[in-house]
Amino acid sequence: QVELGESGGGLVQPGGSLRLSCVAYGSIFSNLVMGWYRQAPGKERELVARISAGGGTTYADSVKGRFTISRDHGQGTVYLQMNSLEPEDTAVYYCNAVPITAPSKNYWGQGTQVTVSS
After folding, report:
1. Which region holds residue 62: left if phi is over 0, alpha if psi is between -120 and 50, else beta?
2. Could you tell me if 58 and 68 are in contact, meaning their C-beta atoms sit under 8 angstroms apart?
3. Quick check: helix, strand or coil at residue 104?
4. Residue 2: C-alpha distances to residues 18, 29, 70, 77, 85 (Å)
5. Cα separation of the two ends of the chain
6. Gap between the Cα atoms of 61 and 11, Å rounded
7. What are the pLDDT digits (tens) for 8-67?
8. What CA–CA distance (Å, rounded) separates 19 from 82?
9. What are phi and psi of 29, to 5 degrees?
10. The dihedral sign for the CA sequence 96, 75, 9, 25
11. Burial category of 43 from C-beta neighbours within 10 Å (exposed 0-12, middle 13-18, buried 19 and up)
């Protein structure tokens, strides 16, 4: 069982920055593929960024060059640095963990609201 605790959301003006954090409990962090997803009102949940245990990254086209995902194995934490935020980035952001040894399992955080508005 993996538990995820997110923080860092909020209200920011267009062009601003935010950093989201997600701490993973209950599993060996290096065994987890970590990701960030988001869901805007009336839309399906979509992948924003993913990072493998070895540090390989994947980004949605809409955030490439603006967002950076990273992980700290010592802290058991994954980060999402979001720069040049746009109103279209407004959504609830969810942390996700998938164990390497059980790829059919998905663990989700409770979600954190990000609102980009002037």
Report:
1. alpha
2. no
3. coil
4. 25, 10, 19, 13, 30
5. 40
6. 23
7. 999 999 999 999 999 999 888 989 999 999 999 999 999 999 999 899 999 999 999 999
8. 6
9. -60, -35
10. positive
11. exposed
